[in-house]
Structure formats: structure tokens, C-alpha cells
Amino acid sequence: MCGIIGYVGPRDALGLLVEGLRRMEYRGYDSAGVSVVSRDGALRVAKKAGRLANLEQEIKVGNHHLVGTTGIGHTRWATHGGPTDRNAHPHLDATGTLAVIHNGIIENFAELRAELEHAGIELVSETDTEVVSHLLGRAYRGETGETAGDLEASMAAVARRLEGAFTLVAAHASEPDLLVAARRNSPLVIGVGDGEMFLASDVSAFIEFTREAVELGQDQLVVITPDGYRVSGFSGGEADARPFTVTWNLAAAEKGGHLTFMDKEIAEQPTALADTLRGHFDGTRVVLDEQRLGEDELRTIDKVFVVACGSAYHSGLVAKYAIEHWTRLPVEVELASEFRYRDPVLDRDTLVVAVSQSGETADTLEAVRHARRQRARVLAVCNTNGSQIPRESDAVLYTHAGPEIGVASTKAFLAQIAANLLVGLALAQARGTKFSDEVAREFEALERVPAAVAETLTRMDAVRALGQEIADSKAVLFLGRHVGYPVALEGALKLKELAYMHAEGFAAGELKHGPIALIEKGLPVVVVTPSPSAQPLLHSKILSNIREIQARGARTIVIGEEGDKTIAPFADFFVELPALPSLLQPLVATVPLQVLAAEIARTRGYDIDKPRNLAKSVTVE
Ligand code: M6R
């Protein structure tokens, strides 16, 4: 995915564009670029491979004269063509008077490129985006139809020809107070200011200036000028887009005194959980945010799939234990990227729970579409109000984790677990497998979790010291049983993505079926252990697993319940967690694993907010 920003208004555009890109750098950081339209009818561009800092340096030394009050900016996560200066956006048309930025993938770009080459156009980059800038330039010049001098009509004509996912924004030298954008399958929001307008992939880019926003719908086009905006469909005619007010402020999108966004987001977890629970229980019943499904329909559900990717998938694995236990419904948890390709058995009595922080992950979105085509009901658990996945779902439960900017998911993951548990309770109450007072008791237990997470956070100094100590290990293994198993998977994912280390998560019982061969002297092995009083059988089994690995020389790092005297003697390092009901333990057990991964990565000298090769959400399949 990439980050896009556009501005028209009275302010100097350049500083605002660069600042907006800084806030969206989590969306891609392979290269960045800006284009500004000046009052004298010139369109100027600066772009550079690498982080935004490289672009800023280029602007400083490059004499680009980026002076004007209309402009566009882009931060890229490369798909077509490597992260080079040439492939950086914006891309120009043949006359150099029109600039385009793009998020997504144009699937029919090869055929369009061939057409352009046939018409004698020379393309200078390897991107799919440059194809659009030339198509648009030709349309605007009137070379391909009746759209000469009309940027909006030109964009509509081009958008109709494109296949795939795209948000496109175009600026033209002859239109100093106007930008045109088109959207299909990629996000775009309009920021509505007073005498100024913004376009962005994410509201964080313009939150400093306005909290009034409009979410552009599928296959919609928008023209912005300082005085307003006009939305239409690709085939013309007015279209409706959804206005909303952003509920958080600039401080939420900044580091607030922390070294990194990830540190801040780890610290915010108690609040993220409390905010996610708030308003979702009315004293007797769990309340969803958007409910286009009747209770009768929920009652007839006979099978649940949770579909998601990465950390969101791990949150679904936790939910499986709770939903099956509370509802007696079979629950399958599927990687969204696999779901629609293996022909899952779905019908109108199947509930598909799509979990996504961003609400724009392409694999999850396509899984949702597949499920709906099979007439299954879809319930979205999402952190981004109005994003595509909730828009296409029958019911929505929003997590209220606030903006998550660090690429590695932390507070959103914990909020997803909490929200998934609420979905389980909603199903249990609809099916009558739990009475209201039982649902209330489960909810009360959930309400105690934010304090337990806050308490866990106060115990992290020793974990940070451990992280520094083991930072040069060649690998770390993670083991868990029951709900500790998804926690182990999440711990391993955090370490892989942040510290670029070999890390594997296993169900502890599987150890002796192969992975134990990996154990060697000094290898750090993190073991997530259940409560000795709540799950005595599992506890004794995992104790045996710990002894097996310790006997083979592993360094045992045990995450367990405070006061667990039986396990402590077998732990080379023991992280004591506040006691919680078994199904809620992942909400505290994940915290030390986040802190450990962050500290190992930091000690190895890596940028924990922007790990290499990654982007915050993946809008391509
Ligand atoms: O926005 P989503 O929740 O759909 O994103 C899913 C994954 O891409 C995401 O959780 C990813 O695995 C994170 N980088 C993990 O830290």
C-alpha cells in the first residue's frame, strides 16, 4: 500500500504535504515524492528513493521551486518496479504538465502500456502508475476522445478502462486550484476544511487542519477546489459519499513523548482495551456498532469462520477457544489469503468474522466478498471507521484502539482479541447458550483486563534487559498450549518482523514431534504457561515440555501467572503476569512478547516503527 495526500487552499502546499506524508509513512517507505502547481502555470516535481528524509534533503538541495498552494504527495510501498527515484511517484504525462499519484495495482497495465508504446509514448519508469499519467494526459489533450481540457471527464474515461485496485489523484499545470481523484478498492478520504480541501489515504494526514471528513465510495470520482468538493460515479452523475467526524485528534497520531510509535502504542493498550469494551455492553446484552443482521439470523448460525491475516489471524485463533466454549458452535480460523482458494463450505447459516485493523487488507476484503457471494453472513471486527471491509459487511464491531501507526500491530491486536470475545458473547446470548447474567459476568471479567495490562506494563524493565542480553541469539522459539499457542505465534511474528530473526511459534505438545530437534545449548525458548489453578492439567503438561527443553540446554523464558511456584524453578527467566480467567490470559501474556521483540530489534539497531519490506496494511493480494 502507499500513502496519498492532496491539497488545495490558501496555504503553502509543500510543508503541509511533507508533514502529511510523515504521518502516513507507515503505509510505505520505499520512496516519496511531491508535486506542486504554481500560480504561474507550472507543475514541479521532486521525488526520491528511500525514506521521506531523503526527499526532504532533495527538496533542500535540489532547487525545485515547489512554490504553490495546490499539490499532491506520495509515499510508496513498491509493487511494480523497484524502489528507485524513477519509479517514485508522482508520474508525469508526456508534456510534463500533468502529475499522478497512485495507491494499488493496475492489473491490465501491460496491455495499456503496449497501447501507449504503439502510440509512440516513451515510458520512463517500470510502474503501472506511469501508464495512467500518460492515458490521462492523452485524454486531457483530447487525443483519445471528447474530454479535452476537462480533467474530471478525462479521469472518468481513464478510470473506466482500468482493472484492479486504485486510488488516483491528478494535478494539472493549467488547473492551479483543482485536484481530481478516483477510487476503486483502495481507500480515499476527503478532508473538508474552511476554504481548503484535502485528499488522503488516511485522515491522520490532515487531522491537524480538520476533523470533518468524507469517505469516498467504490468507483467514485471526486473533484476538490478550495470551496468544496463534488463526487460522481465513473460513468457520470452525482454520487453519495459518507461524511463523518474523526473522533480522535492530532495527539493520537503523534509519538507523545515516546521514542517510537510502537512504544507509545504498547503503552496505550490499557486505554485501547477499555475504549473497545466501552459502549459494547448495555448491562444485559452485547451491543454491536452496525447491525444489519437480525438476532433471528444470528440464532440460526451453525458454523463460524474467522478470516484474517497476520496478527489479526492470531487474534482469531484466540477467539476460537472462547467462541466454541461459549456457544458450542464449530469455529474455523482461516488465513484470508487461503480462504477463497480452497472452496470453503459456506451458506446462509455460516457467520464469517472478518478481523482487520485497517479494514483494507486485500486478502481479507476478497475473503469477505467470497463469503457474501456464497450468501454467508459477514461480521467485521475493524479499527478503521468506514473502511471497505466494514462497509461490505452485514454487521460491524469496531475496536477503539485509535490510530495504530507502528507497522507491527500491538494495541490493535489486543483490541481485536477483546472484540472477538464480544462477538463470542453476542453469539452465545443470541443462541441462548449463555444467560444474561453469565454474559454480564464474562463482560465484568473483561473489564478488569485493562488494569491487568497496565500492571503488566509496570513489570517490563527486566524484559527489556533480557531483550538486550539475547539480542545476538541466532533464533528464538515460542511455545504455548491452548490460548497460549496463538500468543506464541504472535510473539514469533513480532520478533520476525521487527528483529529479522528466525523465530517460530509451536504448540508445546508438538515439540516432541519434530521441533525439539532445534533445541541446542543456550537457545532462548519462550514458553507461555497457563494458570496452575485454572488449568492444572495443561499446566502440568507444559511443565513437562519446559523440563524437556531445559534438559537439552535451552534457556527457558517462562511467561506465567504470578506466584506460580511450581514453574519458577524451571525458568531461567520468569515473567509474572497478573492472574486472569484462562480465556483472557492472552491479553496480558502478549505484552512481554511485544516488549521483548521491540527491545531485541532496537538493540540490533533496527527501526521498530518501519521494519524493512513491510507496510502497515497490505492492499494487494
Ligand atoms: O489491517 P489488518 O489487521 O488486516 O492487517 C493484517 C496484517 O497485515 C497485520 O496484522 C500484520 O501481520 C502486522 N504487521 C503484524 O504486526
TrEMBL record:
Domain Glutamine amidotransferase type-2, chain residue ranges per copy: 2-227
Keywords of the record: Aminotransferase, Cytoplasm, Glutamine amidotransferase, Repeat, Transferase
Catalytic activity: D-fructose 6-phosphate + L-glutamine = D-glucosamine 6-phosphate + L-glutamate
Entry superkingdom: Bacteria
The enzyme's E.C. designation: 2.6.1.16
UniProt keyword annotation of Transmembrane helix present: no
Origin organism lineage: Bacteria, Bacillati, Actinomycetota, Actinomycetes, Nakamurellales
Cellular component aspect of the GO annotation: cytosol
Provenance organism: Nakamurella sp. A5-74
Name assigned to this protein: Glutamine--fructose-6-phosphate aminotransferase [isomerizing]
Localization per Swiss-Prot or TrEMBL: Cytoplasm
